[in-house]
Amino acid sequence: MEYATKGVANAGLTTGIIGTALGVLNNGGLGNLFGGFNQGAVCSENTPVTRYELEQERKISQLESEKDMLLSDQKTDAKVLELYKYMEQQFTKDRENVSARFTATGRELAEIAANQAVINQRVTDNLSFVDSKIDNLRNDMNKEIECKTLPLEKKVPLSSICPQPMQRYNSWTAPTETAPASNS
């Protein structure tokens, strides 16, 4: 384990020394390493910056971030508005459909009520007609019954009674001859 750790440390140290040496050579010597000016005018991402430049870079990043947030908000607002308009159209169509269905249902109910009123009137007229027929029949029967009612004080001739009643004393006589023998 010691050998592996020492080897990694030695490799890191060697890489750092080589990187520093190459940096000194690329940036114009040791003068640049300690804050001197770069006579070669070579730009790299590792060029030292002042606090002022760092602050400006921070402000630029902040403004770009705010700009991106505003653009994102605008896009979101546009999408929300688009969705709102779409939903409003759908709700309007639904309201129109529901309204049309209620209107149609109302018309159908009115038609059914009108037909029912006609049927009710017909039933009432038919019942009145049947009632009048029953009343007329009852009156006719009462008149007939009154006509055929036998008064108890009067004698009714036998010819007025149907079927003819049997005579009180009947004239039948028993046969006196013997009956003929049957040939069975």
Question: How would you describe this structure to a colleague?
Answer:
This protein is mainly alpha-helical and 184 residues long. 69% of the residues lie in helices and 0% in strands. It contains three helices and no strands. The N and C termini lie far apart (149 Å).
Key descriptive features of the protein:
single chain, 184 residues, mainly alpha, 3 helices, rod-shaped
Oligomer description: single chain
Q: Describe the biggest sheet? A: none
Based on CA atoms alone, the radius of gyration comes out at: 64 Å
What is the averaged pLDDT score?
78
End-to-end gap: 149 Å
What is the H-and-E element order?
HHH
Structure summary, number of beta strands = 0
Short description:
With 184 residues, the chain is mostly helical. The chain contains three helices and no strands.
Secondary-structure topology with pairs:
Blueprint: H1 2-26, H2 30-33, H3 51-148
